[in-house]
Amino acid sequence: MATIPSILNSTSSSFLSHFPFSHSPLSSPSLFPHRKNHRNVVFPVKASGAAVLVEKSEAENVNRLKTTYNEKIIPLLMEEFSYTNKHQVPKVDKIVVNCGIGDAAQNAKGLEAAMNDLAKITGQRPIKTRARASVATFKIREGQPLGIAVTLRGNTMYSFLDRVVNLGLPRTRDFQGVNPNSFDGHGNYSIGVTDQSVFPEIRYDAIGKPRGMDICITTTAKTDQESQRLLALMGMPFREGGGPATIVRKKKLKSHHFDAKGKGGRK
């Protein structure tokens, strides 16, 4: 009569014959030689180039424009506008970049190329803006893509604004400064770029058709004067003369000019 240990040994041998790797425990040093340092192991992740444009370690680095704002611009604005708290100092909240695609709406490759170009410039993948209603006059149907847009915040926003001020705008042909009258009355500022090839990320010979873009800078400033001063300290090259800080006085027309014209017409 077979004993209990012999039965267990026979069962174990038959089990191992079907599963030859089951005899090694999970804690075996031969399979996991670096088990003690498993927290320090870095697993490489391969992402698609169209979706991930900036490495996480690079995006987490503090931007130089953001550092300048925190260390230099905030004290200057507090002194000029007599703020009692640093949280009252205006700041850039977000930047929205819009780009019309034109004829590329009918071409899938052209639309994808426009999205890739804007992604290279801003560092973030844009979204498609679609028509809300159909317009037969312009041959537009509901849901048709009309443009692309991207909303930037945080370090990506500061990095893009830095490149616009120091790289994009100075490379514009016959550039004499941005218009200081493009504020909306609520502290927000808009810039129009006629050709996106002014950015070094875009090669001029690689683009088929020059495209422009609209850049809307949204700030927390309550007045246009505060917003203009904030952007000027950040390096925005405003054109001399005009602007919300300047009072524009219109010439007063002489009253007898209208009277003489009216009387002369009746005579």
UniProtKB/TrEMBL annotation:
GO molecular function terms attached to this record: structural constituent of ribosome
Q: Which InterPro entries match?
A: Ribosomal_uL5, Ribosomal_uL5_bac-type, Ribosomal_uL5_C, Ribosomal_uL5_CS, Ribosomal_uL5_dom_sf, Ribosomal_uL5_N
Residue ranges occupied by any Large ribosomal subunit protein uL5 C-terminal domain in the UniProt entry: 145-238
> What is the originating organism of this protein?
Lupinus albus
What GO terms fall under cellular component here? Answer: ribonucleoprotein complex; ribosome
Q: Which UniProt keywords apply?
A: Ribonucleoprotein, Ribosomal protein
Q: Indicate what this protein is called per its UniProt record.
A: Large ribosomal subunit protein uL5c
Q: Which PROSITE patterns match?
A: RIBOSOMAL_L5
Q: Highest taxon of the source?
A: Eukaryota
Coiled-coil segments on the chain, per record: none
What are the BP-aspect GO terms? translation
Which family, according to the similarity comment?
Belongs to the universal ribosomal protein uL5 family.
Segments passing through the bilayer:
none
